[in-house]
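[agent] plan:
  1. take the single chain provided in the ticket
  2. run structure prediction with default settings
  3. attach C-alpha coordinates to the ticket
  4. add a short note for the reviewer (M.T.)
[agent] executing step 1
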Amino acid sequence: MKRERTMRWVTGIAAIAVSIVVFILPFVFILLQAAKTRRGAAELSFSWPTEWVFLDNLIEVITQRDFIVARAFVNSTVLTVVSVTVLVVIAAMVGFVMQRRASTIRTVANFFVLAGLIVPPAVVPTVWVLQTVGLFGTLPGLILIEITFGLAFSILLFRAFVSTIPRSLDEAAIIDGASSFRLFFSVIIPLMRPIAITVIVVQSVAIFNDFANPLYFLPGDDNATVQLTLYNFQSRSSNQWNLLFMDILLITIPPLIMYIFFNRQIVAGMTSGAVKG
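[agent] step 2 finished; step 3 output follows
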Protein backbone atom coordinates (compact mmCIF):
# COMPACT_ATOMS: atom_id res chain seq x y z
CA MET A 1 0.00 0.00 0.00
CA LYS A 2 2.77 2.41 0.95
CA ARG A 3 4.67 1.52 -2.21
CA GLU A 4 1.60 2.19 -4.37
CA ARG A 5 1.13 5.58 -2.70
CA THR A 6 4.77 6.44 -3.34
CA MET A 7 4.44 5.43 -6.99
CA ARG A 8 1.36 7.66 -7.33
CA TRP A 9 3.28 10.63 -5.91
CA VAL A 10 6.22 10.00 -8.23
CA THR A 11 3.91 9.65 -11.24
CA GLY A 12 2.03 12.83 -10.32
CA ILE A 13 5.21 14.86 -9.87
CA ALA A 14 6.60 13.55 -13.15
CA ALA A 15 3.37 14.48 -14.96
CA ILE A 16 3.44 18.00 -13.51
CA ALA A 17 7.10 18.42 -14.50
CA VAL A 18 6.40 17.28 -18.07
CA SER A 19 3.39 19.62 -18.28
CA ILE A 20 5.53 22.56 -17.15
CA VAL A 21 8.22 21.82 -19.71
CA VAL A 22 5.84 21.14 -22.60
CA PHE A 23 3.11 23.74 -22.02
CA ILE A 24 4.01 26.42 -19.49
CA LEU A 25 7.62 27.20 -20.43
CA PRO A 26 6.83 27.86 -24.14
CA PHE A 27 3.98 30.17 -23.10
CA VAL A 28 6.28 32.05 -20.72
CA PHE A 29 8.87 32.34 -23.50
CA ILE A 30 6.25 33.86 -25.84
CA LEU A 31 5.14 36.28 -23.12
CA LEU A 32 8.71 37.45 -22.45
CA GLN A 33 9.49 38.00 -26.14
CA ALA A 34 6.24 39.92 -26.61
CA ALA A 35 7.28 42.33 -23.85
CA LYS A 36 10.76 43.08 -25.29
CA THR A 37 11.97 45.68 -27.72
CA ARG A 38 12.70 44.65 -31.30
CA ARG A 39 16.43 44.44 -30.57
CA GLY A 40 15.94 42.46 -27.37
CA ALA A 41 13.51 39.98 -28.93
CA ALA A 42 15.89 39.39 -31.86
CA GLU A 43 18.22 37.52 -29.49
CA LEU A 44 15.48 34.90 -28.87
CA SER A 45 16.82 34.28 -25.38
CA PHE A 46 14.89 33.08 -22.36
CA SER A 47 15.71 36.17 -20.34
CA TRP A 48 13.94 38.97 -18.49
CA PRO A 49 13.29 42.05 -20.69
CA THR A 50 15.64 44.96 -20.01
CA GLU A 51 12.88 47.31 -21.13
CA TRP A 52 9.18 46.46 -20.91
CA VAL A 53 7.29 47.61 -24.01
CA PHE A 54 4.37 45.18 -23.80
CA LEU A 55 1.65 47.78 -24.28
CA ASP A 56 3.51 49.50 -27.13
CA ASN A 57 3.92 46.19 -28.94
CA LEU A 58 0.24 45.38 -28.41
CA ILE A 59 -0.89 48.69 -29.89
CA GLU A 60 1.48 48.37 -32.84
CA VAL A 61 0.28 44.86 -33.64
CA ILE A 62 -3.38 45.88 -33.54
CA THR A 63 -2.94 49.03 -35.63
CA GLN A 64 -0.56 47.54 -38.22
CA ARG A 65 -1.74 47.70 -41.87
CA ASP A 66 -5.07 49.38 -41.16
CA PHE A 67 -6.02 47.13 -38.24
CA ILE A 68 -5.58 43.91 -40.19
CA VAL A 69 -5.30 41.89 -36.97
CA ALA A 70 -8.69 43.19 -35.78
CA ARG A 71 -10.25 42.31 -39.15
CA ALA A 72 -8.61 38.91 -39.00
CA PHE A 73 -10.13 38.23 -35.57
CA VAL A 74 -13.56 39.12 -36.93
CA ASN A 75 -13.08 36.83 -39.95
CA SER A 76 -11.80 33.97 -37.80
CA THR A 77 -14.67 34.37 -35.34
CA VAL A 78 -17.32 34.30 -38.08
CA LEU A 79 -15.58 31.37 -39.76
CA THR A 80 -15.36 29.40 -36.52
CA VAL A 81 -18.88 30.08 -35.21
CA VAL A 82 -20.69 29.35 -38.49
CA SER A 83 -18.56 26.30 -39.36
CA VAL A 84 -18.87 24.69 -35.92
CA THR A 85 -22.62 25.35 -35.69
CA VAL A 86 -23.37 23.67 -39.02
CA LEU A 87 -20.81 20.95 -38.33
CA VAL A 88 -22.35 19.96 -34.99
CA VAL A 89 -25.91 19.85 -36.34
CA ILE A 90 -25.01 17.75 -39.40
CA ALA A 91 -22.63 15.42 -37.53
CA ALA A 92 -25.18 14.81 -34.74
CA MET A 93 -27.93 13.93 -37.22
CA VAL A 94 -25.72 11.68 -39.34
CA GLY A 95 -24.21 9.98 -36.28
CA PHE A 96 -27.67 9.28 -34.86
CA VAL A 97 -29.02 7.81 -38.11
CA MET A 98 -25.90 5.73 -38.72
CA GLN A 99 -26.08 4.21 -35.25
CA ARG A 100 -29.83 3.59 -35.13
CA ARG A 101 -30.62 2.52 -38.72
CA ALA A 102 -29.13 -0.70 -40.08
CA SER A 103 -29.19 -0.61 -43.89
CA THR A 104 -27.04 -0.73 -47.00
CA ILE A 105 -26.87 3.05 -46.97
CA ARG A 106 -25.18 2.92 -43.56
CA THR A 107 -22.45 0.68 -44.98
CA VAL A 108 -21.81 3.16 -47.78
CA ALA A 109 -21.88 6.06 -45.31
CA ASN A 110 -19.35 4.25 -43.10
CA PHE A 111 -17.04 3.88 -46.09
CA PHE A 112 -17.17 7.59 -46.89
CA VAL A 113 -16.69 8.59 -43.24
CA LEU A 114 -13.59 6.42 -42.92
CA ALA A 115 -12.36 7.69 -46.28
CA GLY A 116 -12.73 11.23 -44.95
CA LEU A 117 -10.35 10.35 -42.12
CA ILE A 118 -7.82 8.44 -44.21
CA VAL A 119 -7.68 10.16 -47.61
CA PRO A 120 -5.72 13.44 -47.48
CA PRO A 121 -7.42 16.53 -48.93
CA ALA A 122 -6.35 17.51 -52.45
CA VAL A 123 -5.78 21.25 -52.84
CA VAL A 124 -5.86 21.68 -56.63
CA PRO A 125 -9.14 19.78 -57.28
CA THR A 126 -10.75 21.57 -54.34
CA VAL A 127 -9.70 24.96 -55.73
CA TRP A 128 -11.14 23.96 -59.11
CA VAL A 129 -14.47 22.99 -57.54
CA LEU A 130 -14.67 26.26 -55.59
CA GLN A 131 -13.85 28.27 -58.70
CA THR A 132 -16.50 26.39 -60.68
CA VAL A 133 -19.25 27.23 -58.17
CA GLY A 134 -17.92 30.78 -57.67
CA LEU A 135 -16.90 30.35 -54.02
CA PHE A 136 -13.11 30.48 -54.28
CA GLY A 137 -11.63 33.30 -52.21
CA THR A 138 -14.87 33.81 -50.27
CA LEU A 139 -15.69 33.18 -46.61
CA PRO A 140 -18.68 30.92 -47.42
CA GLY A 141 -16.39 28.76 -49.54
CA LEU A 142 -13.89 28.36 -46.70
CA ILE A 143 -16.74 27.61 -44.29
CA LEU A 144 -17.80 24.70 -46.52
CA ILE A 145 -14.18 23.48 -46.62
CA GLU A 146 -13.85 23.53 -42.82
CA ILE A 147 -17.17 21.72 -42.40
CA THR A 148 -16.17 19.05 -44.90
CA PHE A 149 -12.74 18.41 -43.40
CA GLY A 150 -14.06 18.16 -39.83
CA LEU A 151 -17.21 16.17 -40.55
CA ALA A 152 -15.82 12.62 -40.54
CA PHE A 153 -14.16 12.89 -37.11
CA SER A 154 -17.24 14.56 -35.60
CA ILE A 155 -19.60 11.93 -37.00
CA LEU A 156 -17.57 9.12 -35.43
CA LEU A 157 -17.69 10.85 -32.03
CA PHE A 158 -21.45 11.39 -32.19
CA ARG A 159 -22.08 7.88 -33.43
CA ALA A 160 -20.04 6.36 -30.59
CA PHE A 161 -21.95 8.49 -28.09
CA VAL A 162 -25.36 7.59 -29.50
CA SER A 163 -24.54 3.91 -28.91
CA THR A 164 -24.60 4.64 -25.16
CA ILE A 165 -28.16 6.03 -25.30
CA PRO A 166 -30.75 3.26 -24.67
CA ARG A 167 -33.06 2.46 -27.58
CA SER A 168 -35.92 2.27 -25.11
CA LEU A 169 -35.97 6.08 -25.05
CA ASP A 170 -36.59 6.11 -28.80
CA GLU A 171 -39.38 3.54 -28.49
CA ALA A 172 -41.03 5.40 -25.62
CA ALA A 173 -40.99 8.68 -27.55
CA ILE A 174 -42.44 7.02 -30.68
CA ILE A 175 -45.19 5.37 -28.62
CA ASP A 176 -46.05 8.82 -27.22
CA GLY A 177 -46.53 10.03 -30.79
CA ALA A 178 -43.25 11.83 -31.41
CA SER A 179 -42.12 12.19 -35.01
CA SER A 180 -38.56 11.43 -36.10
CA PHE A 181 -37.56 15.11 -35.96
CA ARG A 182 -39.16 15.63 -32.56
CA LEU A 183 -37.51 12.47 -31.26
CA PHE A 184 -34.12 13.74 -32.36
CA PHE A 185 -34.39 17.38 -31.30
CA SER A 186 -36.42 16.92 -28.09
CA VAL A 187 -35.06 13.64 -26.73
CA ILE A 188 -31.67 12.82 -28.26
CA ILE A 189 -30.08 16.26 -28.65
CA PRO A 190 -30.33 17.17 -24.91
CA LEU A 191 -28.61 13.87 -24.05
CA MET A 192 -25.78 14.69 -26.49
CA ARG A 193 -24.66 17.75 -24.52
CA PRO A 194 -21.32 16.26 -23.29
CA ILE A 195 -20.17 15.10 -26.72
CA ALA A 196 -21.54 18.25 -28.38
CA ILE A 197 -19.39 20.42 -26.11
CA THR A 198 -16.40 18.21 -26.88
CA VAL A 199 -16.90 18.58 -30.63
CA ILE A 200 -17.54 22.32 -30.32
CA VAL A 201 -14.34 22.98 -28.38
CA VAL A 202 -12.09 20.65 -30.38
CA GLN A 203 -13.34 21.84 -33.77
CA SER A 204 -13.41 25.51 -32.72
CA VAL A 205 -9.75 25.39 -31.73
CA ALA A 206 -8.84 23.48 -34.91
CA ILE A 207 -10.68 25.90 -37.22
CA PHE A 208 -9.56 29.03 -35.35
CA ASN A 209 -5.93 27.87 -35.51
CA ASP A 210 -6.13 26.60 -39.09
CA PHE A 211 -3.37 27.99 -41.26
CA ALA A 212 -3.25 25.90 -44.44
CA ASN A 213 -6.88 26.14 -45.56
CA PRO A 214 -7.16 29.96 -45.37
CA LEU A 215 -3.79 30.20 -47.09
CA TYR A 216 -4.95 28.06 -50.03
CA PHE A 217 -8.64 28.89 -50.31
CA LEU A 218 -9.02 32.44 -48.93
CA PRO A 219 -6.33 34.72 -50.39
CA GLY A 220 -6.28 38.49 -49.87
CA ASP A 221 -5.76 40.88 -46.95
CA ASP A 222 -9.48 41.58 -46.58
CA ASN A 223 -10.08 37.87 -45.98
CA ALA A 224 -7.11 37.32 -43.66
CA THR A 225 -7.55 35.06 -40.65
CA VAL A 226 -5.56 35.31 -37.43
CA GLN A 227 -2.98 32.70 -38.40
CA LEU A 228 -2.18 34.45 -41.67
CA THR A 229 -1.39 37.71 -39.83
CA LEU A 230 1.86 36.09 -38.69
CA TYR A 231 3.20 36.87 -42.17
CA ASN A 232 2.94 40.60 -41.39
CA PHE A 233 5.93 40.49 -39.07
CA GLN A 234 8.21 38.29 -41.16
CA SER A 235 10.27 39.12 -44.23
CA ARG A 236 13.36 37.88 -46.03
CA SER A 237 15.54 40.68 -44.70
CA SER A 238 14.43 41.01 -41.09
CA ASN A 239 11.88 39.69 -38.63
CA GLN A 240 10.02 41.73 -36.02
CA TRP A 241 10.17 39.05 -33.39
CA ASN A 242 8.62 41.17 -30.64
CA LEU A 243 5.54 41.88 -32.76
CA LEU A 244 5.44 38.32 -34.07
CA PHE A 245 5.36 36.88 -30.56
CA MET A 246 2.79 39.47 -29.50
CA ASP A 247 0.58 38.33 -32.38
CA ILE A 248 1.13 34.69 -31.37
CA LEU A 249 0.13 35.59 -27.82
CA LEU A 250 -3.12 37.21 -29.00
CA ILE A 251 -3.92 34.18 -31.16
CA THR A 252 -3.19 31.75 -28.32
CA ILE A 253 -5.47 33.36 -25.72
CA PRO A 254 -8.96 32.43 -27.12
CA PRO A 255 -8.26 28.66 -27.52
CA LEU A 256 -6.51 28.62 -24.15
CA ILE A 257 -9.55 30.15 -22.45
CA MET A 258 -11.84 27.59 -24.10
CA TYR A 259 -9.76 24.67 -22.89
CA ILE A 260 -9.54 26.07 -19.35
CA PHE A 261 -13.30 26.54 -19.00
CA PHE A 262 -14.43 23.40 -20.86
CA ASN A 263 -11.71 20.95 -19.84
CA ARG A 264 -14.02 18.75 -17.75
CA GLN A 265 -16.73 18.71 -20.41
CA ILE A 266 -14.20 17.64 -23.05
CA VAL A 267 -13.00 14.71 -20.93
CA ALA A 268 -16.58 13.72 -20.04
CA GLY A 269 -17.65 13.78 -23.67
CA MET A 270 -14.69 11.74 -24.92
CA THR A 271 -14.99 9.09 -22.19
CA SER A 272 -18.78 8.80 -22.53
CA GLY A 273 -18.49 8.28 -26.26
CA ALA A 274 -15.80 5.64 -25.78
CA VAL A 275 -17.82 3.30 -23.56
CA LYS A 276 -19.30 1.50 -26.57
CA GLY A 277 -17.57 1.45 -29.94
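[agent] step 4 note for reviewer: Confidence is low (pLDDT under 50) at residues 273-277.
[agent] ticket updated
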